[in-house]
Write a structure and sequence with these properties.
One of its GO terms (molecular function) is metal ion binding. By secondary structure, the chain is mainly alpha-helical. It is 48% helix and 0% strand. The chain is elongated, with a radius of gyration of 18 Å.
């Protein structure tokens, strides 16, 4: 049986690993937003703009993710996702 996954080289997995990392990072961003409400409150977007520290942390998280995926492939084993 000819399985395509067994014939892949290690460089063929880099876009898949980058996509997995990117998905994990967006889950982290969503978790940061959802973790703002802890007392059974479901409207976790209310008052989001009132906390400048939270917005700064959120923007830093998103910015670092974009930098790692697009420009820091020297330090991290990542590849731009546009190849998928």
């Amino acid at each position: 049986m000819n399985n395509q996954l067994t014939n892949l080289q290690s460089s063929d997995w880099e876009p898949v690993i980058s996509l997995l990392f990117n998905s994990f990072m967006w889950c982290q961003v969503f978790n940061e937003i959802c973790s703002r409400r802890i007392n059974d409150e479901y409207d976790f977007f209310s008052g989001l703009h009132k906390s400048p520290i939270f917005l700064a942390v959120l923007l830093i998280t998103i910015g670092l993710q974009a930098l790692i995926i697009n420009f820091m492939d020297i330090f991290f084993t990542s590849e731009q996702i546009e190849d998928l």
